[in-house]
Write a structure and sequence with these properties.
- This protein has 30 helices and 7 strands.
- The protein is mainly alpha-helical.
- The chain starts with 8 loop residues before the first helix and ends with a helix.
Length: about 725
């Protein structure tokens, strides 16, 4: 049976796997996983459809819009086939599981080879990079469940071992199955990347529940029911055990810290911890050796000491938290002061664990990035700077803040930064609902946070709900602004084009007064409406042809063929003129007289040997000079802005920019529309109201003069972590 038939996927994958016996528990996992992945994939395709529709709605040109609609049509037609192909391939993995890691290692090896990179097309390279990033993120995020499942599957399948493990639902295998399934789609790289992005968002990012269910089924079947994660490196495991042994002497706190270290969700912090250790080694700083008279403080004990900080230290008692410059706190000094005040009943000197010191350093580096990040608006920058100690409390208890994009505190910080990007200044913040909301959130964290991260989750839910309401209002205003600007600019262009066409034609001859008045005061309005409605009625060329026919009929014609054509053209010409002038409500009292005069002029032209004398050449020359001057203004003044033109072309709808005025003031706005017909970029504020419009060349000049800056809009904490890791790598290279 053809895969594209309507037969349910279960029949396909049962037939595919029938050649090799599969254990009962694996069959149960297979059916659960394949069905679950099918549901998740449907959500991904629905999101792709929405994304393409939005892109088509905001397209800059008809060609671009048609491209997105064609992609939507292609995906809708072949969607069911892609879903079945994907599910059948995943089911086949359970019958013949490939070795885990083999596919990704081969892909990464090909990517790392410079000789091979030169042979890979840009589109293929972009797709490889997106896949590798997706796989790496998933393996870091689900490290614990994946390791457990891999170990258990290796016990179930014959021929598998610890050295050659298998896992049918490893991220690299699922990504491979999806890329194979979408090969049938005839779409371009941008649409393929949208597909991969939504697959990552809806399928790969939600693998956790399927991995947990698969582990649960194998545990019920008695496959390694008591699993213990021993780490990847024996040396690193020994060091962790040494620290854990020291913590065990102090009771349950040690066991909690040991669980944190081995949780598998701290991959990012582990990477940074190693970079910091390498940096200390390069600087000649020996590894920490604790004195017998030293009492090591860390984990929950350190979090408890931080909780004792008074609210005033956190600046929570201030009336307006965004006044003044961003708050700078020496976190190491604050922690040392707390340690010096800690009760030491045994007389030992308190000291921090090396890992906790690295946590404190990392939080300090993150907030250094915040204070230097130009993309944050000033009020939000000041407010977020107040949260250094609360965030330190969070990460001391839960290092997954650095690895989990869904961590409540991390989501809230990202939402605050994203919402405040459109603030230009703080002059009107006292009456600004968004400012009041963000200010209230920061104040509640400073006053109410007692170590329970649930507060961040509650505040984030409230803030997202508030933003949804505000964004709906702003979106409606922005839509009206965009439509109004498109209409205004199209009308402006229509009027300019009509004036140019008529001016060009009437400048060649001295027309009779009735004809001149009809064209300038009446038919120009008909042409204006025809241009605006041309997308639907296609009458623009007809309206221009009426002008050309009228002028031609007023010429003297001596040849019999031309005079015969004149006789055929004039009745229809007069009918078209009257119908068009009536449609635009031309003065009805004058219409009959005007048409009678026009008929008289046409009859005289037919009888006379010469009815129109050429006009002086000066008007036409003046027009040509003016037109050439206008065209010259539209060209770049010099090659200096060429590189900036490329950046302007890269700006997309929804991107934020900042303009600086000559007087030193600045304002932020969002690109709402690009109107290609007039080479016009329309920007709105965060309320959706228009603030400025400029041409492509004008924007390039603004950027060259340093008066326009593109603002980064990626997840705030992600950008901060990338900057910190990049800085550490450069220092340890």
């Amino acid at each position: 049976m053809n895969k594209q038939s309507g037969i349910h996927y279960l029949r396909g994958h049962r037939e595919a796997g029938s050649s090799k016996s599969v254990p009962v528990e694996v069959t149960r996992i297979r059916d659960t996983v394949v069905a679950g992945l099918g549901d998740l994939l449907q959500g991904a395709f629905d999101a792709v459809d929405d994304s393409l529709f939005e892109l088509a709605n905001n397209a800059r040109s008809n060609n671009e819009q048609n491209r997105y609609f064609e992609a939507m049509r292609e995906i809708r037609i072949k969607r069911k086939g892609v879903e079945r192909h994907f599910q059948n391939t995943v089911a086949q993995f359970f019958a013949n599981p490939p070795h885990t890691g083999q596919l990704q290692e081969d892909t990464l090896g090909r990517q790392a080879n410079a000789d091979n990179l030169a042979l890979v097309g840009n589109d293929d390279l972009e797709e490889q990079v997106a896949l590798n990033a997706m796989i790496t993120k998933a393996k870091a995020h689900f490290q614990g469940p994946l390791l457990q499942l891999q170990t258990r599957f290796s016990q179930v399948y014959d021929g598998a071992s610890d050295e050659s493990p298998v896992n049918p639902i490893a991220p690299e295998h699922l990504c491979s199955a999806f890329t194979e399934a979408i090969q049938a789609l005839e779409i371009q790289i941008r649409e393929r990347l949208i597909l991969l992005k939504q697959f990552d968002r809806y399928v790969v990012s939600n693998l956790g529940m399927l991995l947990d269910e698969a582990n649960r089924i194998l545990i019920q079947a008695g496959v390694i029911p008591n699993f213990r994660y021993h780490g990847k490196s024996g040396q690193r495991h020994s060091a962790a055990e040494g620290e854990a042994a020291a913590e065990n002497q102090k009771g349950p706190v040690g066991s909690e810290s040991r669980q944190d270290v081995s949780a598998g969700s701290n991959a990012v912090f582990e990477q940074i911890h190693q970079l910091l250790a390498r940096q200390r080694a390069n600087a000649g700083i020996p590894s920490r050796q604790y004195d017998p008279n030293t009492r090591v403080i860390g984990g929950n004990e350190l979090a408890g000491l931080l909780a004792s900080l008074p609210v005033s230290t956190n600046a929570g008692a201030e009336h307006n938290l965004s006044e003044g410059a961003p708050l700078t706190i020496d976190l190491r000094d604050v922690v040392q002061q707390i340690l010096s005040q800690a009760n030491a009943s045994d007389g030992k000197k308190p000291a921090l664990k090396e890992m906790d010191e690295d946590l404190i350093n990392l939080v300090s580096m993150l907030f250094e990035f915040i204070l230097d990040d130009y993309n944050l608006s000033a009020p939000v920058q000041v407010l977020i700077s107040r949260l250094q100690i609360p965030i330190l409390k969070v990460v001391i208890k839960d290092k997954s803040f650095f690895s989990k994009t869904t961590h409540p505190a991390r989501k809230l910080l990202n939402a605050l930064a994203r919402a405040g990007i459109g603030w230009s200044n703080s002059d009107e913040k006292a009456r600004d609902k968004l400012y009041e909301k963000i200010h209230g959130i920061v104040q509640r964290i400073l006053c109410e946070f007692d170590g329970d991260v649930a507060l961040f989750e509650v505040l984030n839910d409230e803030f997202e709900e508030f933003l949804a309401r505000e964004n709906r209002k702003a979106s409606l205003v922005e839509q009206r602004t965009r439509e109004s600007e498109r209409g205004r600019i199209k009308s402006q262009k229509a009027q300019e084009l009509v004036d140019r066409v008529i001016k060009e034609r009437v400048a060649r001859y001295r027309l009779p007064e009735p004809t001149y008045n009809i064209l300038i005061n009446g038919w120009s309005r008909v042409m204006f409406l025809a241009y605006l409605r041309d997308d639907v009625e296609h009458r623009w060329q007809e309206s221009v042809k009426v002008v050309d026919d009228l002028i031609w009929c007023l010429h003297p014609h001596q040849e019999d063929a031309e005079r015969d054509q004149w006789v055929r053209v004039v009745p229809g010409l007069l009918k078209s003129l009257r119908a068009g002038l009536e449609e635009v409500s031309y003065n009805s009292t004058k219409l009959d007289d005007t048409m009678s005069q026009l008929k008289h002029e046409l009859a005289e032209a037919f009888r006379a040997s010469s009815s129109m004398a050429p006009a002086e050449e000066l008007p036409a020359q003046e027009y040509e000079q003016d037109d050439s001057g206008n065209k010259a203004e539209l060209q770049p003044e010099d090659s200096a802005i060429a590189e900036f033109m490329v950046q302007i072309d890269g700006i997309e709808i929804g991107n934020w920019v900042e303009f600086r005025l000559i007087n030193g003031a600045s304002f932020r706005c969002k690109l709402s529309a690009i109107i290609d017909e007039a080479d016009c970029f329309v920007f709105v504020n965060r309320m959706g109201l228009k603030v400025i419009e400029k041409t492509r060349v004008e924007l390039a000049h603004e950027m060259r003069r340093g008066r326009m800056t593109l603002l980064e809009q990626g997840a705030f904490i992600d950008r901060a972590l990338d900057a910190v890791v990049g800085s550490l790598r450069s220092k340890t290279a």
